[in-house]
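Closing statement on the zinc ion sub-project.
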Amino acid sequence: MIIISPSVLAADFSKLGDEVKKVQNAGAQYIHLDVMDGVFVPNISFGPPVISSLRKVTDIIFDVHLMIIEPERYIKDYVDAGADIITFHYESCKDPEAVIDLIRSYGVKASMSIKPATPPEAVYPLISKLDMVLVMTVEPGFGGQKLIPETIDKVRSIRRYADKNGLQIDIEVDGGITPENSGNAISAGANVIVAGSAVFRSENPAKAISDIINTK
Ligand code: DX5
Ligand code: ZN
């Protein structure tokens, strides 16, 4: 099954609760919450208070993407805010395994992301401990960018490695996904698809979601 996780970065922040309900009614199973600290990425978004406010108005799965340095400092805050899945960046910390253990210690799903320049091999030593791998298909920091085609090969490599080792793992792609390119990502092995602009900026989010899933 393909899961769609619309990124709220492309939503209208003045009515975030309604925006989340809108995409949930349109068929989204997750909501993707992009947390940026202005250090790991050159942009700042929002933190735990926004997420815990949203938690009060929806039961959708919170797919929290931390683009922050030393994520271990804040994992508990995001768990308390209502995260169901926490993704941190391989490039953002000294000891990724310890971050995975910390996330799992709270009973939350652990996911690790790699930036476009990080090779898929970085994930392999840790993959058996992960619930999900997020392959960035753009440079993290901003919504509305164009997908970097070479990143899809990394999805294929990671899916192949997981299959070869009998590991069931979710692979999420994030950045520049549209109904035109989602098919490539899905056939490479991605099963969780982030889409910000393509869903929130659409006149018809339900159609956008079904077009992303049911690619030609
Ligand atoms: C980029 C974020 C993405 C982004 C996706 O740093 O991690 O989640 O908001 O937005 P679109 O789909 O518009 O590229
Ligand atoms: Zn993201």
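The radius of gyration is 16 Å. With this model delivered, the sub-project is considered complete and its resources will be redirected to Aim 3.
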